[in-house]
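Recall from the previous chapter that SMILES is a line notation for molecules. Here it describes pyridoxal-5'-phosphate.
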Amino acid sequence: MPERLVVSDATRVFPLELDRRYPIVVRGDGAWVEDSSGKRYLDAMSGGSMAATLGHGRRDIIAAAAAQATRLSYVHNERLTNPAREQLAAELVELGPPGMTRVRFTTGGAESNEMAIQMARSYHVERGDTRRWQVISPAQAYHGPTMATLGLTGRPGLQRPFGPYMPAHRHIPPSTWRFDPSGRAALAALDRVLEDVGPENVSAYFCEPITAAALPAYSPPERFWKGLAERRERHGFLICYDEVVTGLGRTGHWFAAEKLPLTPDIIATAKGLGAGYAAIGAVLCADHVYQAFANGTRRFTLGHTWDGAPLSCAVGLKVLDVLRSERLIERVRAKGPRLRDGLAAALDGIPLVREVRGHGFLLGVEYVDPRDGRSFLPPELGVARRVDLTAMDLGLIVYSTMPTRDGFAGDQTLFAPPFTTSDPELNEMVARFAETIRTVARSLEGQLE
Ligand SMILES: Cc1ncc(COP(=O)(O)O)c(C=O)c1O
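With both inputs in hand, we obtain:
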């Protein structure tokens, strides 16, 4: 075993997958990371989780963090506040969709989503509508690994063995080409669920406006969004967007909500706010949500130790500053379609590839069984895993999944480079990825007869 890889029996870490070999990454610079043997990888996944939106090794963000830590690194938010927290909240309200007026900070995506669930439920309770608790969400989603956020997906593959802890939230199928390209079936499913649980018991509809890992770069058709807005109006539930990935520029807009035909009541975000330099998330809410508390108990108290800490908020402020001063969101908006087209052209003619989707620098490649061009690939072929391992061999980091057992998506790859990736680096990512897929397709020859 080369020393740049760690396996489960040679570490005190409890790894996520005991049969996977993990490269030991020792440094990063821009869109590149390097392992302990000196092998360099192009990071088409912004640190692996899409968080490192500004690339690795940014001295300006490190300097902002150091300056804040020297002045004041930490105070808790329960009895104290701090200038970085105050300013970051004010800036996020300016950048968010119109009508968002308050921000609560967290330390990550699942926490932001949990807080959004609690905020939605508390909003109704504050208004005396204590029956509303149930959440409806698309089945093919990922909102985090905590019990409450696992309950927001309808994916038995993720929930097992935690079924006994899962809240009885309800789910609808995604409107993909495979199941429901028009969005009609999803709306009909939403109506059935509303009728079944009683719309007076529904607290929120919860979704990613543009999906990340669970169904890369997928968003329902306009008909669905309009129908959802109508039903919110009619039934009085809230709409929460999980913008943990899409927030802060990933899709070429500050928030993906900007481009959709409805404005949510609550937005949960995280990853790109800290850009991999601090663990920070945020929940933005519309003024009517805040006013329910202002006119009610005037309390919404649960939170974590690091919420709104000076150090993480100072990083958030510097991240916003870099996004603005380097016009990176404009860059992602301009380059995203070219990157999508470039990927599609490079993969053209490979029968394994069914669809290349893209919104800004959030791109997805969907694979199908080449024998009929539409079925899921047999799971035992492990195509997603082959893609990631082959890419890594070729010095490229992507992220592939195979949620086939959950019923709504097969093998697929997520491609989400840092916004700062140069044009030649983007081209090189595409070239390495196309080589990866051609290599995987060759390795499947003879196994798909
Ligand atoms: C869309 C989405 N929501 C929530 C989360 C959970 O965020 P975290 O891992 O920061 O808790 C993730 C993480 O990948 C995500 O992709």
